[in-house]
Amino acid sequence: MTALYKSYGFGTTSQAWKPSSWKASRDISQHRGIHLEMSDLHKSFAKSKLAKFPPEAPMPESMSYSDDAWENGSSNSSVSSTGTMVPSPTRQLFARTGRRQSSQTSLLWTDFFDQELFLPEEVNNLHIVHHAYLTPPTESGPLFVMHHGAGSSGLSFATCAEEIRKILPKAGILSLDARSHGRTVMTTLDSKTDDEAPSTAVAAESESSGEIELDLSLETLSRDLVHVIYQTQTRMSWEKLPDIILVGHSLGGAVITDVAKKGELGPKLLAYAVLDVVEGSAMDALQSMEKYLSTRPTRFPSLLSGIEWHTRSRTIRNTTSARASVPSLLYEESEPSDPSRPWVWRTSLSATKPFWENWFVGLSRKFLDARGGKLLLLAGTDRLDKELMIGQMQGKYQLQVFPEAGHFVHEDQPAKTAQILADFYRRNDRSALVLPPKVADMQASAAMKKGTGAPGGPTGHLK
């Protein structure tokens, strides 16, 4: 438009202008009419494209913070300026919310799953009560088995699980708490608890005595995952396992890849999806892991302040998911060393350091070699290492990138992640395969229609 104005001697668009002749005025009006028509076309095109994207949960809201609620490292984090404008419950964009609404309180697991399972086991002189969240599949629906990352819990997949069920109503979701995470409890055989539904605090404090040696090796976590799947089958009285799609985030991605490579689920494993972890970048990140852990708070004055820290630091960029998952990451000490900040982390990530390298060495090769459909969902293409780049060019797996998400892609973008996982399942669903008819069958059918019988057989007319 600027060039057009100048061609008629009107100067720039920011200036007031007057046509120098009737002809110029008419030409300008015609041009503006064309511009309006194109603008409407652009709008309709944009609306058709935007309609295809699933609605996303609101971003973190405007929150008030007090200095005494934070320890190290939180002051240098900031929330996007658009964080004060979030979709309302009716999906009206840019509806402003008030401060300190109920949306800042925690959400219950019952908002996302049908039931929780406590699966006891005695192994290596330990009494373990494995904990998992379950929404059973219906009819012949698949079972998505979720494994969280280090320091997280089964509720990390809560919002994503809800979105999967919206797209695939018959699908089931099984999301477990790994040992030393969430509400999975480990005690010695001599002091095993009779509590059938232990809290996160009970689970954490039962391991704090030092009598139990921490074992978070890849081999142990893989064994635990397979055990939970088969124990769930027994508890639910399933004749056979449903078709399974393994989904793992970060450390969980290494665990489900190891299970897929070992083939312990047999033909019931349709496919597996790894979320935001590859061997090369994971090994590089380990060098700075201790520095990162030293910058995050070790204690919180309340559960609410823990939720706020996760959204304020943009560790989790989705408020709804933070409200669902963060409560399982913290517990209130019964005798806190600092009464003003009694809430501490359920899992000590620094204590897991001896296992870091064991988790990720050889991950890329196992991911490419294991049988079944493969999906790698990343927050950035820079995370791809050489082996995976070659595998991608050879078409060995599906790659999806969510540049707008952080490390917790399934929490930051639950609806989009769910859509990708649902499409991934459909692409690998064997029951949906329709094989073409055999040539011999087609010839026989054609011959019967002509009344000549099968090829090579006796001829004659049908009576």
Automatic annotation (TrEMBL):
<feature type="active site">
    <location>
        <position position="276"/>
    </location>
</feature>
<feature type="region of interest" description="Disordered">
    <location>
        <begin position="56"/>
        <end position="88"/>
    </location>
</feature>
<dbReference type="GO" id="GO:0051723">
    <property type="term" value="F:protein methylesterase activity"/>
</dbReference>
<comment type="similarity">
    <text>Belongs to the AB hydrolase superfamily.</text>
</comment>
<feature type="active site">
    <location>
        <position position="407"/>
    </location>
</feature>
<dbReference type="GO" id="GO:0017000">
    <property type="term" value="P:antibiotic biosynthetic process"/>
</dbReference>
<feature type="compositionally biased region" description="Low complexity">
    <location>
        <begin position="72"/>
        <end position="86"/>
    </location>
</feature>
<feature type="domain" description="AB hydrolase-1">
    <location>
        <begin position="144"/>
        <end position="419"/>
    </location>
</feature>
<keyword id="KW-0378">Hydrolase</keyword>
<dbReference type="Pfam" id="PF12697">
    <property type="entry name" value="Abhydrolase_6"/>
</dbReference>
<dbReference type="InterPro" id="IPR029058">
    <property type="entry name" value="AB_hydrolase_fold"/>
</dbReference>
<keyword id="KW-0719">Serine esterase</keyword>
<dbReference type="GO" id="GO:0072330">
    <property type="term" value="P:monocarboxylic acid biosynthetic process"/>
</dbReference>
<feature type="active site">
    <location>
        <position position="250"/>
    </location>
</feature>
<dbReference type="InterPro" id="IPR000073">
    <property type="entry name" value="AB_hydrolase_1"/>
</dbReference>
<protein>
    <recommendedName>
        <fullName>Protein phosphatase methylesterase 1</fullName>
        <ecNumber>3.1.1.-</ecNumber>
    </recommendedName>
</protein>
<dbReference type="InterPro" id="IPR016812">
    <property type="entry name" value="PPase_methylesterase_euk"/>
</dbReference>
<comment type="function">
    <text>Demethylates proteins that have been reversibly carboxymethylated. Demethylates the phosphatase PP2A catalytic subunit.</text>
</comment>
